[in-house]
Amino acid sequence: MTVKTGVPIASYSLDQLPPALVEVLPGATLVPVADAKGWACGAFRNDGSFCTGSRIRTGHTHFSAQPAFADAGEVLEGRHLYAGLGRHHFGHFLLEALPRLWAVDQQPVDGIVFMARPGLDFPAVLNRRFRAFLDVLTGGLPIMVAQKPTRVDELVVATPGIGHLQWITGTPEYRQFMRARLTGHIAPNGPDKIYISRSALKRPEQMVDQEERIEGMMRDAGYTIVHPQKLSLIEQCSHYMAARHIVGGDGSAFHLAALVLQPDTQVAVIQRRWRQNVVDAIMDQISAFSEARLTMINPLYPREDTPDNGPIIPTPLDIKYLRRALNTAGFI
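Below the sequence we write its predicted structure tokens.
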């Protein structure tokens, strides 16, 4: 694949994932987030102009704001790939902190640099949860976190290869990079049938209605119950690569699974909430990144209005319908 390099990266659109481009900024200045309002951050060229390609898609409907230029208090020597904003939330880490790493296959660099944001000790989260996974993707390149305005000898800014909603299917360069790096360095290891559970998460709105009953049903059908947050990212990938049948409620686990699913793996995504665009995006990503045999099951009862001051509970589902649908599709 031919990737354009050396041209200024234009502004992004929420509606369309940008093509694979790389811009190298000599003498760049990185400006991390100073406060949470607008999450203003990014990179400036050595002439003081802002590199619009360094903006971050921070969710479904927003980009990070352009910061004011700030004189650098730190210096980072060498050539570094700009990775954007460090995120501790699992799903946002996958869709906001990984999208530019594909460029390590395009440009030789001395390391990777993230930007910090206030109130989060991203270096600690990085070392505890994400370092080994990033080592697989980058070949063990050093990782730096800019916590103050920082001057970088050479900053490689690549367009993001994936993102939320309309960006979820990824560029060909990103899909090829992620699959080659992960499946080339991680061995399949795990049970043949897994159910991805959310029952050990902390907040009711994160959970699946009646999940203990669903887990019992899946155990009876020979499935191993897996809680992804209790496994490293590498262990999660090993499980997803080994399994031939995967079932679970829609959520961030499938953003990772999509990267490594083997051909003809049977996957059933159970819709657990009325956020149709998010559920559709998960399905689109799995279809774009893999050759899995994909089934979506919506067992939710018809949507009803609830009082603003009512309790937060998982969206109610019809477990009898779910059982029939899983049986019909050959999962149980």
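The two ends are 42 Å apart (CA to CA).
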